[in-house]
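User: Please fill in residues for this 308-position structure.
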């Protein structure tokens, strides 16, 4: 199935390329993996429509052309929000993954994350990179407010965490992955994730070193694509963590209290990304979750929308 770019909201059906998820009661979370996913609990969710695909570069380009929207990555950060930051770094930019040359300490995210001036949704790897040929890739380098602005333009909203997780499960109660309990059934790669030792060895068994066109991997039981891997997805819910604010993050930026901007609210992101690897971040599962600062944009974070 090939995804086409979203047309103007005024000229397309509101539920084009969306799937109806029946409401119901399901067991959310997990007690078997990372502590922030627990405890597993029963949750009731009303029915809703959800995008079949992650919002693409082409979709976002149409939105920007229609509205003139400027993303957070394209404006300088407010100095007042980062009183201890190096003033030279308070320029437009975003976080870009840089593959390490060899094994490195997994305790320091700076071994693979680089603040890159000039990195935006139009320049995913920084100045000199383009979105040419990536129309059907998920848009990246979008902060929370950018995702909300797009959703409003499209006549939609961002999903809650429980809505997103119910949709991701695809009707499979308590399954580890969106497609079942086996990571690669009969050797078939089911999602765009990292194979090998993160952050330096990517075996590319799935065929992609970065993002992949939406719909490149099999859908789940609700005919939704990329509910695991490719890019993380914003939700509307504030992130809470039972162990407190100093929780360990994986391939996202860390949740800490001693860095510039640490007081900025965080929202739940779901689904994992092409940077999630078993040796470090097995978060390409429905129950997996992380918190991301609402002013943050990265090369592996996007979104999809819902209509209630």
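Assistant: Residues filled in for all 308 positions:
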């Amino acid at each position: 199935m090939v995804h086409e770019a979203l047309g103007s909201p005024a000229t397309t059906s509101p539920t084009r390329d969306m799937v109806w998820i029946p409401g119901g009661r399901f067991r959310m979370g997990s007690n078997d993996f990372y502590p922030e996913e627990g405890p597993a609990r029963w949750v009731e969710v009303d029915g809703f429509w959800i995008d079949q695909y992650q919002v693409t570069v082409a979709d976002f380009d149409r939105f920007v052309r229609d509205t003139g929207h400027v993303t957070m990555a394209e404006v300088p950060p407010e100095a007042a929000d980062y009183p201890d930051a190096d003033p030279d770094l308070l320029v437009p930019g975003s976080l870009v993954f840089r593959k390490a040359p060899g094994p490195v300490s997994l305790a320091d995210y700076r071994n693979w994350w680089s603040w890159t001036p000039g990195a935006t949704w139009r320049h995913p790897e920084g100045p000199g990179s383009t979105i040419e040929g990536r129309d059907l890739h998920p848009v990246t380098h979008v902060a929370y407010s950018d995702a909300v602005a797009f959703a409003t333009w499209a006549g939609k909203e961002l999903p809650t965490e429980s809505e997103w997780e119910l949709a991701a499960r695809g009707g499979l109660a308590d399954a580890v992955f969106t497609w079942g309990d086996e990571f690669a059934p009969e050797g078939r790669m089911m999602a765009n994730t990292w194979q090998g030792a993160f952050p330096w060895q990517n075996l590319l068994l799935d065929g992609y070193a970065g993002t992949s066109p939406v719909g490149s991997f099999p859908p789940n039981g609700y005919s939704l694509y990329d509910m695991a891997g490719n890019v993380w997805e914003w939700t509307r819910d504030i992130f809470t963590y039972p162990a407190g604010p100093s929780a360990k993050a994986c391939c996202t930026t860390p949740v800490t209290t001693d860095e510039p901007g640490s007081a900025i609210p965080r929202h739940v992101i779901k689904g994992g990304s092409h940077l999630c690897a078993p040796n470090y971040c097995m978060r390409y599962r429905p129950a997996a979750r992380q918190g991301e600062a609402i002013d943050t944009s990265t090369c592996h974070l996007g979104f999809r929308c819902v209509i209630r």
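For context: Residues 17-308 form a domain with the paralog of FGE (formylglycine-generating enzyme) fold (CATH 3.90.1580.10).
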